[in-house]
Amino acid sequence: MMTATTNKTALITGASSGIGLELTRCFARDGHSVIMVAHHEEKLASAVAQIKAEFPNVQIESIACDLSKDGAAAKLYADVQARGIPVEFLINNAGFGERGSFLETDLQKEVGLIHLNIIALVSLTKFFAQDMVKRGSGRILQLGSVASFIPHPLLAVYAASKAFILSFTEALQVELKDTGISLTVLCPPPTDTNFFEVANMENTKIANSSQVQSAVDVAEAGYEGLMKGEARVLPTFVAKMYAAQGIALPDAFNAAMTKKQLENVKE
């Protein structure tokens, strides 16, 4: 556990549940102010009330925002600027998946996925990183996945978006070296959140396997890695295994294995 020495502000997307909510707890526990961002206003209000009850002395603000829509990231940034809050920690956590055969999945949902997982993430990174470089300090945590390393048939668009995040973040780590800011990519294994429900994966083999990890453990590992300035965080043995498998084995072999895990459990 790390203890903060100064009170700074973290902006966390997807903060109303899962890994985002647990990351919020990490920052609030160490005395940092938090701007909690999420799509659904009622769910966000409930999460804010929960965090305020747990950490009554921490400044918590909230912004309801659907980052899967055009222009939403720019509006969010403008809202934060209007409040006059310098963001020291940007946590690009929000994202979702869509499981199914690519020819049969909902294109509009996948376009929204690309907008949230990629376009909003890139936009927020640009907006806030520019401010951080001017100040000479700041840290950014991008939520990748073990899917960043291996093609995922039946989860093709989601996995591709996470591969983008890994490549994008590791390129910026070199570009922004010696600027005073750090970027960390967190690549968790399947995690116990509402991801499976949103992605229509509740009955898959992987969702019902021992690979599924705790959101608390994943968030703690991501938080500590961010604060240490680590480039990449593989929070569990399972995550490390996926990364090694992606390097050591051919993509076609990995994709075939992954497809089996994404098939439904037989009745």
Automatic annotation (TrEMBL):
It comes from the Bacteria. InterPro entries: NAD(P)-bd_dom_sf, Sc_DH/Rdtase_CS, SDR_fam. GO terms for molecular function: 3-oxoacyl-[acyl-carrier-protein] reductase (NADPH) activity. Its EC number is 1.1.1.100. It is an enzyme of class 1 (oxidoreductase). Gene3D superfamilies: NAD(P)-binding Rossmann-like Domain. Keywords: Oxidoreductase. This is 3-oxoacyl-[acyl-carrier-protein] reductase.
